[in-house]
Design a protein that fits this description.
This protein is α+β, with helices and mostly antiparallel strands. It contains 4 helices and 3 strands. The longest helix is centred in the first third of the chain and has 10 residues.
Length: about 100
């Protein structure tokens, strides 16, 4: 599953229309699994599950900026992001080991 986005990006790079790749990762699986009508789409009355990306979702350098599940914004912090924020601005004296 973790390589699915990359595989879709490779398919786009080799000629698959971008919209077809997006559908293959969103509404098509929802239809196959018989999920709520409108799942995997952006439409009035559809379930409010949404991911907002920093750039093209098929680019490996992009990441989810916001995630909403059932209309509720999800906390994206992790141990890694918390440590990054904690040590982002170290005093100059702590940047070098002697």
């Amino acid at each position: 599953m973790r390589w699915l986005r990359q595989a879709a990006g490779n398919a786009v790079a080799n000629g698959l229309p971008w919209n077809a790749a997006l559908r293959a990762l969103t509404s098509a699986p929802a239809e196959v699994w018989g999920l709520t009508r409108g799942s995997g789409t952006l439409a009035a009355g559809a379930p409010a599950n949404l991911v907002i990306w920093t750039a093209d979702p098929f680019e490996l350098t992009s990441w989810p900026e916001e995630v909403m599940i059932a209309g509720e914004r999800q906390d994206l912090s992790s141990r890694q992001t918390l440590l990054f924020e904690r040590y982002r601005n170290l005093p100059d004296a702590m940047l070098y080991y002697r």
